Amino acid sequence: MYLPREQFITLIGVKSKKIKPSDEMAAPQRMLDHLRRQSSSQLKAYCGYYYEYYYAMTEPGCILCSLVQIREEGQHFVYERNERIQIGGAEGTFERYRYVGVSYYLQDRLFLLDYESLTSNEISQTILIPNYKSRIIRLNGLKMGVSAADHRTPACSRVVWEYLGREINRVNAYRKVRLYRMDDPSIDEDLRGRLAQTKIVDGLFGIA
User: Fold this and answer.
1) Considering its fold, how many domains does the chain have in total?
2) Buried b (16+ CB within 10 A) or exposed e, 129-167
3) DSSP character for 207?
4) Which has more confidence, 139 or 9?
5) Does 71 lie in the same domain as 19?
6) How far is CA 136 from CA 46, 59, 82, 148, 204, in A?
7) CB under 8 Å to 66, separation ≥6 — which residues?
8) What one-character DSSP code corresponds to residue 37?
9) What proportions of the chain, in percent to the nearest 5, are helix, strand and coil?
10) Mean pLDDT, rounded, for 17-29
11) Which end of the chain has fewer surrounding CB within 10 Å, N or C?
């Protein structure tokens, strides 16, 4: 009984349990790793910065412009999305949101899944249709999430990503991140037309 632990285990013949490599990886990790292996390397062509436009889920009738960066990190493609929303009645004051997530290129669609990193109280998904032209300009798709307001309404909106390049002046680009009215001259006719078919339904996912 007074032998060192290792000698005592050897003496009584207890065999230590060997952990298989597959057991060390938790189920969510295995799922994400599976998606990573299935994802096409074509996603590399979409790395860089984008403006993301979609109907604001908290401000009906407004379009929200956010700044997104997709980058390769190790064996994964990750991205960061930054939003800021003007606070009514407080000139120059904004609420800021930062989302981080992973992206995959599966069967000719770009899938992006993220969460709000400051509060960790929501998850959103974006599905984009790739651009098959030699130059990436704008990508169309759908965004699904919930309103940041107290009622937390599930919502779905058409979304447009505008490619900015692999290297940008982030300070200058961030100045455009805000809410815009539909008739704001900063929202051009092409962008307005791409978003025009959106219909947001309280409590449901709705696309007109």
Assistant:
1) 2
2) ebbeeeebeebebbbebbbbeeeebebbbbbbbbbbeee
3) B
4) 139
5) no
6) 8, 29, 21, 31, 32
7) 51, 52, 81, 82, 83, 177
8) H
9) 20, 40, 40
10) 64
11) N
What's the rounded Cα separation, in Å, for the pair 96 and 88?
14
Tell whether 137 and 74 lie within a shared domain.
yes
Residue written as tokens 């009645």?
A: 89
For residues 177 and 12, give the distance between their C-alpha atoms in angstroms, rounded to a whole number. Answer: 68
Structural domain includes residue 208: no
Q: Supply the CATH number for residue 189's domain.
A: 2.40.128
Length of the chain (residues): 208
Per-residue tokens: 166: 């692999």
Q: For residue 157, what are its two tokens?
A: 């909106």
Give which of 144, 67, 138, 79 is closest to 105, Cα–Cα: 79
Same domain, 31 and 94: no
How far is residue 91's CA from residue 96's CA, in Å, rounded to a whole number? Answer: 15
- What was the pLDDT predicted at 83? 93
Q: Are residues 88 and 111 in the same domain?
A: yes
- 207, part of any domain: no
Of the pLDDT bands very low, low, confident and very high (cuts 50, 70, 90), residue 207 is very low
Q: Which two tokens stand for residue 139?
A: 């990508």
Note whether 155 and 132 are same-domain residues.
yes
202 within domain boundaries: no
Count of beta carbons in the 10 Å neighbourhood of residue 62: 17
CA distance 207 to 158: 8
Q: Both tokens of residue 141?
A: 């798709």
Residue 14 domain boundaries: 5-36
